[in-house]
Automatic annotation (TrEMBL), chain A:
The chain crosses the membrane at residues 24-44, 76-96, 108-131, 137-157, 169-190, 210-230, 259-286, 298-318, 325-346. This is Iron ABC transporter permease. It comes from Sedimentibacter hydroxybenzoicus DSM 7310. One of its GO terms (biological process) is siderophore-iron import into cell. InterPro entries: ABC_BtuC-like (IPR037294), ABC_transptr_permease_BtuC (IPR000522). Keywords: Cell membrane, Membrane, Transmembrane, Transmembrane helix, Transport. It is found in: Cell membrane.
Automatic annotation (TrEMBL), chain B:
The keyword Nucleus does not apply. InterPro entries: ABC_Transporter_SBP, ABC_transptr_periplasmic_BD, FMN-bd. Residues 1-25 form the signal peptide. It holds the Pfam family Peripla_BP_2. It comes from Sedimentibacter hydroxybenzoicus DSM 7310. One of its GO terms (cellular component) is membrane. This is ABC transporter substrate-binding protein. Gene3D superfamilies: 3.90.1010.20, Nitrogenase molybdenum iron protein domain. Residues 197-482 form the Fe/B12 periplasmic-binding domain. GO terms for molecular function: FMN binding. Coiled coil: none annotated.
Length: 352, 515
């Protein structure tokens, strides 16, 4: 009896090990692909620079004309920013979907993106500076502050006793509509030029990336990742319903609050530097779930990697569709993201 | 794998849509009419129609032949769009030459080569429809040099002349910029700013241009089509650095490495430019901000010309063109339109139609500023000027207010960029707006005072002409002895590289109600 039990345990152990091995391998492959994409992104640009020149520029800081500056201060931070922002949005989407147990939740659900858009509109249309930032940074700081404001509002709401997942979603929807309407009022009084800028801001762009901006996004992404990862067991338990999670000793209210705070921060930094990049936050976790299920130890890193992957691929595409012109990254992300997303939807329909 | 197939179908569909959109952008070849059946070999007598591409669209001719196939006469159809003046000479001269020589190997009229080739081609087309072989009459088909996208070629970049001096320029925002001169290459924030450079540099405006952002009228393509035949290929050393009002592609600017980046301060472009100023400074590319007519309608064009004159060390030339524009505003000022007691009432609308309500503008913004200067009393002012949106461009007036105000003039804007290149197609404004409820009773419509202005005149070097044009509509008595169109002709003649026919500047409603 004991023997059969042991045998069964061994079989299960082997099965489990094999599964873990497969997941690790998958992550490794994805990581390699991501690395290749970063290289590709450094290689492709508006100007013609050979691979050799790029390597020399990166490691020896030598090159003719402005090559060194182009490679080290434009292409490198932009390629890395695509990864950081994609990872941030992928992670954010993954955790939001987990705590709200809602497949269509994303960082946008909480109203943060629309709040950031409103902040940007204030800068672009009213020339209004919320804090006394220098003129070139005005739009970025405005949108960041409004994203933070929305985050604080959602967080404060989640602190209320009895604020369940549906309550949070509804509150987020309300914030979305509120900021959307406010932005429309600004658009109504805007002149053509400002309106056009607003449209472009909404489409998102990696072109404004600098090293400083990258470091800010990168550090937020790293900190959030560590915190999420340390809590991965709790987060995995959150996929059960609240009662079961609590019976496993998880303080669901507290975990939910933490996730909302961190996800808001992730979204705020991504959106204020890059603009609204649609869809990554929804699709990355969905793809990841297809591969590894809800186990946060793999689900979280894979969501981050897939988010980075989608944005990096979009960035490559945005540079090669029209030679010499970089398309807004938001446009491309949606155009690439939607087919992938539909693929998942169709697959799900089949399994039902 | 059923789901996968569905996704494939979807992706294919998206691709098809994208491809068909790109395909639409390409010019379609005009098909020569097919031969109208075989004629009996014995007699060629009759009149045959033929057509071929001229300079501006198709040229139609009718050729009269006797029974032996001898050309008796050649008549060019009236419905051509060739350049008045030089084009007319070709249209008059070539048919005679062909009949005289009984040959298609005749000299083309200098300066109207494309028109001449068009006529010859059209006659050849008519002859072949008569069953004759045009080659027997010495016809050599001309390759119509279609406009095509020039491929970037770094070796064609303008050569950098060693700088000899450093000057300090105070730009329109009062920034003091120090620049090494002479300038060998430059970049623009928005393509239409080149209208400020052409009067100063002439053809060099294009040969020294290495990069630009696009403008609201897709100017990069438009100017390419219009000016490449005039100044020669310049797009081989050109890089696009932004979409209209979008952030700059810093890498493209650095790669093109202009000596200076000239930025239109009236638009968001200047904020995007200042954002990347630290990097540009590090790369040694200074930014010079210029202004286009807006609030300072009467002075900003001239100020910009003066700044650019200093920058390119052509102060005299800049003085010449700014004096010309000063004179035009002096002309308007001398009429004291502002002090008229019985001002003409005007309603302005941007590109509206009967059921599409376009936005209007108060005397504080956009076209409203020009209408105000031309002595128009804007019916939107009493309602909107103090409103928060008074300076905005999304203002739409309640249709009732327009009816109640019963304006004497309706001025619309939209369309008509500088696009009169060889393959341009012009459609008349539809004036569908007259079908709007109650409009048939408006004074302006009853009197036929409905006009359309070319968008290219707003916030550009041509704003002075728009003011004069509007004033001449509102107060024709003041302009009795002034040939208004001669003013823009003179401007183009003295300062530009083409004649003024590159744009349809304005258009008057013909009084016909279209449904």
């Amino acid at each position: 009896m004991i023997k059969t039990q042991q045998l069964e345990n061994n079989v299960n152990r082997e099965l489990y090990n094999a599964m873990i091995k497969r997941r690790v391998a998958l992550s490794a492959v994805l990581l390699a692909a991501l690395f290749a994409l970063v290289i590709l992104n450094i290689f492709i640009g508006s100007s013609d620079i050979t691979l050799k020149e790029i390597i020399i520029a990166i490691f020896l800081k030598e090159g003719k004309g402005h090559t060194v500056m182009i490679v080290n201060q434009i292409r490198l931070p932009m390629a890395l920013m695509a990864v950081a922002v994609g990872a941030g949005l992928g992670m954010g989407g993954c955790e939001i979907q987990t705590i709200l147990r809602n497949p269509i939740a994303s960082p946008y659900t909480l109203g943060i993106t629309n709040a950031a858009t409103f902040g940007a509109a204030m800068g672009l249309i009213l020339n209004m500076n919320v804090v006394k930032a220098s003129e070139p940074l005005m739009v970025t700081t405005n949108s960041f502050l409004f994203a933070l404001l929305a985050s604080v509002l959602v967080y404060a709401f989640s602190l209320r006793p009895g604020a369940g997942k549906n309550g949070i979603i509804l509150f987020g929807v309300a914030l979305n509509f509120l900021f959307n309407a406010a932005t429309m009022i600004l658009q109504y009084i805007a002149n053509d030029e400002d309106l056009k800028s607003m449209v472009f801001w909404n489409m998102g762009s990696l072109l404004k990336t600098t090293w400083t901006k990258f470091y800010i996004v990168f550090s937020v992404v790293v900190v959030c990742f560590i915190v999420f990862y340390l809590n991965s067991w709790k987060l995995t338990a959150m996929t059960l319903d609240d009662t079961k999670a609590r019976s496993l000793g998880v303080d669901t209210q507290k975990v939910r609050q933490m996730v909302i705070l961190l996800t808001s921060l992730l979204t705020a930094v991504s959106v204020c530097f890059i603009g609204a990049i649609g869809f990554v936050g929804i699709i990355a976790p969905h793809i990841a779930r297809q591969f590894v299920g809800e186990d946060q130890r793999f689900f979280l890193p894979l969501s981050a990697m897939l988010g980075a992957f989608v944005v990096s691929v979009s960035f490559v595409v945005s540079k090669i569709v029209i030679p010499g012109v970089v398309l807004p990254i938001g446009l491309v992300t949606a155009m690439i993201g939607v087919p992938i997303f539909l693929f998942i939807v169709f697959r799900k329909m089949r399994t039902l | 794998m059923k789901g996968f197939k569905k996704v494939l179908t979807f992706v294919a569909l998206v691709l098809v849509i994208v491809l068909s959109l790109t395909a639409c952008g390409q010019d379609e070849q005009t098909q020569a009419p097919a031969n109208e059946g075989e004629k009996p070999d014995t007699s060629f007598a009759g009149t045959y129609d033929g057509s071929a591409e001229g300079y501006h669209g198709n040229l139609n001719v009718s050729v009269e032949l006797d029974e032996t196939g001898k050309i008796l006469s050649v008549a060019v159809g009236e419905d051509h769009g060739e350049t008045p003046g030089i084009g007319d000479i070709a249209i008059e001269k070539l048919p005679k030459l062909i009949v005289e020589a009984q040959s298609l190997r005749v000299d083309s009229v200098a300066g109207a080569t494309r028109t001449s080739d068009g006529i010859i081609g059209a006659v050849a087309n008519a002859l072949s429809s008569a069953g004759l072989d045009p080659a027997a009459l010495g016809y050599v088909p001309k390759e119509v040099d279609k406009w095509k996208v020039a491929k970037y070629d770094a070796s064609t970049m303008p050569e950098k002349v060693p700088t000899t001096d450093t000057i300090v320029i105070k730009d329109v925002k009062g920034r003091e910029v120090s620049i090494d001169v002479p300038i060998s290459t430059y970049a623009l924030s928005t393509m239409d700013v080149i209208d400020f450079i052409i009067p100063i540099l002439g053809e060099d405006a294009f040969h020294k241009l290495v990069a630009s952002g696009n403008d609201g009228g897709n100017g990069i393509l438009g100017y390419d089509k219009l000016y490449t035949p005039v100044v020669g290929t310049y797009m081989t050393h050109f890089g696009q650095i932004s979409e209209h009002n979008a952030p700059f592609d810093l890498e493209m600017i650095l790669a093109q490495d202009p000596d200076v980046l000239i930025v239109n301060s009236a638009m968001q472009a200047h904020k995007y430019a200042l954002e990347i100023e630290p990097q540009l400074t590090e790369a040694g590319i200074p930014i010079v901000l210029i202004d286009v007519p807006g609030k300072n309608l009467t002075t900003s064009t001239q100020d910009t010309f003066k700044i650019l004159g200093r920058l390119f060390q052509k102060d005299e030339r800049a003085a010449e063109v700014s004096t010309f524009i000063d004179e035009q505003y002096t002309l308007i000022d001398s009429m004291n339109l502002d002090e008229k007691t019985d001002k003409a009432t005007v309603y302005y609308e941007k590109g509206g139609a009967a059921e599409v309500f376009g936005s209007t503008a108060t005397s504080l913004s956009g076209w409203g500023v020009l209408i105000d200067y031309a002595g128009g009393e804007n019916i939107a002012d009493p309602i909107l000027i103090d409103a928060a949106s008074g300076k905005g461009s999304s203002n739409t007036l309640d249709p009732e207010i327009v009816l109640e105000a019963n304006p004497e003039f309706v001025i619309m804007s939209g369309g008509g960029w500088m696009d009169n290149h060889a393959n341009a197609t012009h459609s008349e404004p539809s004036y569908d707006i007259v079908n709007r409820t109650g409009w048939s009773e408006l004074k302006a419509i009853k009197d036929g005072n409905l006009y359309n202005l070319s968008q290219a005149m707003n916030r550009s070097t041509y704003s002075f002409f728009a003011v004069i044009k509007i004033a001449s509509w509102l107060y024709p008595e003041e302009f009795e002895n002034i040939d208004v169109d001669a003013i823009i002709d003179e401007y183009f003649d003295r300062f530009m590289l083409t004649d003024s026919s590159v744009n349809v500047w304005s258009h008057k409603w013909d009084g016909v109600t279209r449904k």
